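Q: Could you fold this chain for me?
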Amino acid sequence: MSKTIRVQWEYPDFANQLGDENYEYFEVDDDATPEEIQNEAEDIAFEHFSWSFWDVTKEHEKAR
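A: Sure. Below is the predicted structure, expressed as structure tokens.
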């Protein structure tokens, strides 16, 4: 048997823009541990995020 889990990602800065598109359902076995569920939820949620990083230089500071 399996059960349905809903994972929802929250972007406080964009809450009004997301509408109903900030969640996804997935199936897990009935005997899935909370850790297994959390790992799957994290994998799914992180698919919907994009991010980057870089060293801040004087040129970046001037652009602010």
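A (continued): DSSP finds three helices and two strands in the chain.
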